[in-house]
Amino acid sequence: MNHCETIFGSVLHTCNAQLGYHPHVQMLITGGGISSDGEHWEPARGEFLVPVGVLSRKVAAKFRDAVKKEKPSVFASIPAGVWRRQWVSFVKHYGHGNDAVLNYLSRYVFRTAISNARILAVDETHVTFRFKDRGTDTWGTMRLPGVEFLRRFLQHVLPRGFHRVRYYGLWHHSKRDLSHRAWLLLILDKPSGTVGPVKIADLLEALSQLAEIDDGQDLGDEHDDHADSPCCPHCGSERTTFLGERPRPRMP
Question: Model pTM?
Fold first, then answer.
């Protein structure tokens, strides 16, 4: 694949299904990206952006170099065999389109360490909850003393001001222009292959012409009636159409 700008975000998780301390990062990455010239969407080869084996070696090397630089005393205490072992990065194809993205985000981004649905019973001394064993893909139950349950839960409350979710690539705020380009290119993508790649410059030129017509610049003075048209209360734009007023919700 040629050099391209991809879209991805990372989410920090600190627990496993039994509320144990298990810090790990889950990332959502697009299967492709916008080309370096900003003109085309470059799809990945197959279902993944990079081969899993290559990714595992890259993650191990980056982590090793970071620990060696930032924590030299910790690096010295790690057995050398750790870095010679084969690291495994779990990669899963999550589907296509908005539904796949929303399904991932709703499950992993905004959840807490444990949901109320998993708590089965609470008495004066203990809390009983269910968990899923990923190894056997079965559900089990665990009963913990109340103090131990609180200890496990509170160790996953992040410090104030800590960012649990971080965005990179086209999702970063500095790449909003490229993000809009990618959005337009994906909408206009033709999977059948009967139509050639859409040039973003041609698309922007067409949108600009439509905007000029909408502004009345090419229609003569008789269409210059912005003074009577409503303005957007947020941005002040006059290119708006009044549809109606939304009724206020009734107070209980």
Answer: 0.57
* pLDDT tens digits, 99-114: 777 777 666 676 788 9
pLDDT by residue (tens digit) across 60-92?
999 999 999 999 999 999 998 999 888 878 887
| Tokens representing residue 55 in the block | 């990714």
Buried b (16+ CB within 10 A) or exposed e, 101-136: beebeeeeeeeebbeeebeeeeeeeebebebeeeee
Contacts of 49 (CB under 8 A, 6+ apart): 1, 6, 29, 30, 31, 32, 33
Number of other residues whose CB lies within 10 A of the CB of residue 87:
16
